[in-house]
Specification:
Elements: E1 22-34, E2 39-50, E3 58-61, E4 66-72, E5 78-82, E6 85-89, E7 99-108, E8 121-125, E9 128-132, E10 152-161, E11 165-168, E12 171-178, E13 181-192, E14 199-202, E15 205-209, E16 219-223, H1 228-234, H2 238-249, E17 257-261, E18 270-272, E19 275-278, H3 290-298, E20 307-308, H4 315-331, H5 337-349, H6 368-385, H7 387-400, E21 405-406, H8 408-416, H9 426-434
Parallel strand pairs: 1-10, 16-17, 17-19, 20-21
Antiparallel strand pairs: 1-2, 2-7, 3-6, 4-7, 5-6, 8-9, 9-14, 10-13, 11-14, 12-13, 15-16, 18-19
Helix pairs in contact: 2-3, 3-4, 4-5, 4-6, 5-6, 6-7, 6-9
Length: 462
């Protein structure tokens, strides 16, 4: 199957989002948010680079806000703002390959953008707000080149009433209180897709998980005080997950990791870069959602650091995170990956056989079958390669593409390097990725041993 080079064209599932004629190097966002009236005002400074052709105009995605000012390299351009697209025509065309700076001021009442999956992006809560942008919700709160392949660094400055905490992905640089407001400044230096810029505003208590003083990854939880006891149990084994995933996938790709639990219920947790958001319904004191804790953490490697070039390849995010759930279960004394693969296979065998994993189409890109079949595909690769080659392959995949974008064909090419010349995996990939019929259940000889020992499923604390 022919595929575009990563970042080379418009996303086929969302052609109205993003502009492939340029790429962004850095966003600097200064936001002021008032939870009571749900009022957001912001200024964005966007450093970008034109593509291979002169840029007579370019697009940014931005929802229905009032745009107060636009500048390109300090000069006023002509611009229009309709249908969630800010079309900017500079005073003179930008040279091919030239760097340029865009400044945008906007204000209004943020709300989710409409999508086939309901509202996406900025969500006003009963007392605060959160951002859940996958796949196209980022324009609900800031102007951006909204395509997953266009990754940039970010600095976020958010001013809110001082009663609220602000949590964003990245390192907290400063927190400054003045009168009744506090300004929080976060820096995310690693390349980040627009939909993965996470933000939560609420009244939280902060706790530390693990012991970063021992050289581990700094991990923090931000939770309502009433849920502290339950959280301390439900997330107790996250540091052990981090340890395992670093062993299996390679070093954690960012400087820190935070989890937020909101006061409200969420249908599913939300991953962002360096940050995951859970609903109060995911905290029960009985580790009822522990597989989701593993799933969201695994996305930091697969989806966030190693990102997809366009949404056709979403299985590279979700299939990998699903398989990480199974690996965590296997290594922490739960069901083996083989047992969980069998459960998934039986489930899929009773459902319609009309999903093509390598290009599911927009309608099916978040179908539960994609997650399960993606996990099974990786299990099939593991069965074919054997554990030693399989985990060397995963670590190399995460290292080679750290901070970059990938496609399905890039993955199959990568796997081929770890395959014996006499045993190529062409048939495995053809049946699991490109055909809709469910292949037979792959079989693994033996599970990887539970080493080093992790806290048993009924013990441990945050």
């Amino acid at each position: 199957m022919a595929e575009r080079t990563a970042g080379a064209g418009a996303d086929p599932y969302f052609p109205a989002n993003g502009d492939p004629r340029y790429r962004v190097h850095r966003y600097e966002l200064a936001l002021d948010y008032r939870p009571g009236p749900n009022r957001l005002s912001g200024t964005a400074r966007i450093n970008a680079i034109a593509g291979r052709a002169p840029l007579a105009e370019f697009l940014l995605n931005l929802a229905d806000f009032k745009v107060g000012r636009v500048r390109v390299d300090g000069r006023a351009p002509h611009y229009t703002h309709r249908g969630g697209r800010l079309r900017v025509r500079p005073a003179k065309p930008i040279r091919a390959g030239a760097a340029f700076t865009v400044e945008v001021q906007w204000s209004g009442n943020p709300k989710p953008v409409r999508s086939p999956w309901g509202g996406l992006g900025w969500e006003e809560l009963e007392d605060g707000a959160l951002v859940a942008s996958q796949p196209v919700g980022a324009p609900s709160w800031y102007p951006c080149n909204d395509r997953p392949a266009d990754k940039a660094s970010y600095q976020l400055s958010i001013t809110t009433p001082s009663a609220y905490s602000v949590v964003a992905g990245g390192r907290l640089l400063t927190r400054t209180t003045k009168a009744s407001t506090t300004t929080w400044v976060y820096e995310q230096s690693a390349p980040t897709s627009s939909y993965l810029v996470g933000l939560s505003i609420g009244k939280y208590q902060t706790v530390l998980l693990g012991d970063p003083g021992l050289g581990g990854v700094p991990q923090a939880g931000h939770i309502p005080a009433r849920l502290l006891t339950e959280f301390s149990r439900d997330f107790a084994r996250q540091p052990a997950m981090m340890e395992l995933f670093e062993e299996l996938f390679g070093p954690y790709p960012f400087g820190e990791y935070a989890v937020v639990v909101t006061e409200e219920e969420l249908d599913v947790p939300v991953e962002a870069q360096g940050l995951s958001l859970f609903g109060a319904n995911h905290v029960d004191g009985a580790r009822g959602s522990e597989r989701l804790v593993a799933h969201e953490l695994a996305h930091q490697w697969f989806g966030n650091s190693v990102s997809i070039a366009d949404w056709r390849h979403i299985w590279l995010n979700e299939g990998f995170a699903k398989y990480a759930e199974w690996l965590w279960s296997e290594r922490s004394g739960g069901r083996t990956a083989q047992a969980l693969a069998g459960i998934a296979h039986r489930k899929l065998s009773s459902l319609p056989q009309d999903l093509r994993l390598a290009d599911p189409g927009r309608k099916l890109m978040f179908d539960d079958r994609l997650y399960e079949r993606g996990g099974l595909t990786l299990h099939a690769v593991r069965c074919a390669l054997g554990d030693d080659a399989f985990f060397r392959m995963l670590r190399s995949w995460a290292a080679l593409h750290r901070g970059g974008t990938v496609t399905t064909s890039a993955f199959t090419t990568h796997v081929a390097r770890y395959t014996a010349a006499a045993e190529p995996l062409d048939d495995v990939f053809a049946s699991w990725l490109h055909e809709t019929a469910l292949p037979p259940l792959p079989s693994l000889g033996a599970a990887i041993p539970a080493r080093p020992p992790y806290p048993p499923s009924n013990s441990g604390s945050a």
